[in-house]
Amino acid sequence: MNRIFLIRHGATAGNLEKRYIGRTDEPLCEQGISQVRLLQDRRIQADFVFVSPALRTRQTAGLLFPQIVPTVIGDLRETDFGVFEGKNAQELADDPAYRSWVDAGCQTPPPEGESISEFKARCCQAFRLCLSQLPEGKSAAFVLHGGSIMAILEAFAVPQRDFYDYHIANAGYFVCTYQNEEIRLVHPPD
After folding, report:
1. How far is Cα 118 from Cα 139, in angstroms, rounded to an integer?
2. Interaxial angle between packed helices 55-64 and 30-40, expressed in degrees from 0 to 180 and rounded to the nearest 10
């Protein structure tokens, strides 16, 4: 059995403005750094750290695990929101393509973006690969994006719940055990 920490990066300026920030490589903002510093008080210990290539995940991991060089996993990146990238719902309210995407439950790909099914499959395959290389009994921290964490938990958590049930705040985290391709939550985020 392995102990797994699924940690969402601290906030960026785009997060605070409720923008679709997938491929945009924003750094943590001051509030995000403060959130991560509060998370440091939890003294989360891990043997291995995995991050997406995004600056915000690498910065968060660096603050939480300064003694560990994280392994960057490209396929754990956030979804690509296509033409909606960098905008928020208010700015897109009059865009017919956006309304159509929202009306479809965000299940279709945004124009020039990635579908939710492609995104989930990519994240879950990358997560499975990381864990296949993790020695038995060792712990791992995955410092990721909200969507990536939601995709992983929807696919692997027992009992199974919906993708959106696993929404997680910036600098929030789940403590889990992982065995036989099942995740059991030990501690949900505060």
Report:
1. 28
2. 30
Q: Which amino acid is at 48?
A: F
Q: Classify residue 150 as left (phi > 0), alpha (psi -120 to 50) or beta.
A: alpha
Where would I find the H helices in the chain? 13-16, 30-40, 55-64, 89-92, 96-103, 116-132, 146-156
Give residue 127's pLDDT band: very low, low, confident or very high (50, 70, 90): very high
DSSP letter at 174 equals E
Q: Which of 37-64 are b and which e, b meaning 16 or more Cβ less than 10 Å from the residue's Cβ?
A: eebeeeeeebebbbbbebbbbbbbbbbb
pTM (predicted TM-score): 0.94
Q: How far apart are CA 94 and CA 188, in angstroms?
A: 37
In whole angstroms, give the CA distance from residue 102 to residue 5.
Answer: 31
Spatial separation of the C-alpha atoms in residues 120 and 65, rounded to whole Å: 26
The terminus-to-terminus CA distance of the chain in angstroms comes to 24
- CB-based contact 23:14 (threshold 8 Å): no
- 175-185: average pLDDT: 89
Do 118 and 146 form a contact (C-beta atoms < 8 A)?
A: no
